[in-house]
Amino acid sequence: MKKTIHTYLIFLTVFFVYCSDAYSFASNNNSSDIVLNEYADITISAGYRTDTLDWNISGYNNSPNILSELEYEDIKIYQTALNIKSVLNCFIVNLYYNYGFITDGSGYDSDYFGDNRTELFSKSTSTIKNNSVEDFSIAAGYQFLITGSKFIITPVIGFSRHNQNISMTNGIQTVAAEGETPVERPFLGLDSTYESSWKSFWTGVGLSFIINKNITLSADYKYHFADYEAEADWNLRGDFNHPVSFIHSADATGNESSFKIEYSFLKNWLMAAEYKYHNWSTKHGIDTTFFSSGEQGSTKLNEVNWTSKSLNIIFGYKF
Q1: How many domains does the chain have?
Q2: Residue 2's pLDDT band (boundaries 50, 70, 90)?
Q3: pTM recorded for the entire structure
Q4: Could you identify which of 13, 87, 246, 306 might form a hypothetical disulfide with 280, taking C-beta atoms 3.0 to 4.6 angstroms apart as the criterion?
Q5: Are 104 and 130 spatial neighbours (Cβ–Cβ below 8 Å)?
Q6: Residue 283 maps to which CATH number?
Q7: Domain range for residue 42?
Q8: Would you give the end-to-end CA distance of the chain in angstroms?
């Protein structure tokens, strides 16, 4: 966390120096090249999103280097969001909240005796549904017009949090050691959970192109310096503690990009179509397991990876 904050502070310093220079430029040029609109807008959106999330851990003393791997794939999400933006003298403040309902997805749990995913001795599949995702972001930035063009560039900084709440049911064993759960048969009572959270400081830039008074194209990019945390309950493991069987923690980074076309109509109303993409990953972290005996043990969390793609329709009102 200290390294994350230190790196972010460097970007923060560069950001404020950059904005100070931009503001000085605006003042010295009588603001002729700067967009000085003062307004606020509120938008709501609805969209469809697909996510994938995977993680794996090593065995104790890194033997094997991948002991257990969980993959959550084709997670289908219907989501809705609220966004509030205020612009005053080129300075922007933005608040964003999104909530999504997970309607379907698949989980895969694989365990290995050998290094590099060899000697598979257990694999099962499960169903993911009736869960949720949440996204929150607060941002501040500064916008100005590139001289002699219709391009608006906006450097931005902010804080965000992204949560995925996953539960696994309807388990089916597809690979098993001899004498264990029969293969290709369901095992009853599976209701395990994995709740993950990515908390980040980020810096980014937005670029908008004003086609005419009604239509604007925009693209945004954000780079995240994140802390990753997760908490799980493996409900069928009698040797694990409940409701917290193990936790994960690691430093992470994330890339976020979006593309949007916006149309203004009836003076104050707007509608837009938007595509968003997230690609996040952790560095090596720690897996801490809590046993029913009261003891606990730790091993290496090798990696966590999260990708998200969404398409959203946006309606809003500008004040």
Answers
A1: 1
A2: low
A3: 0.87
A4: 306
A5: no
A6: 2.40.128.90
A7: 2-318
A8: 39
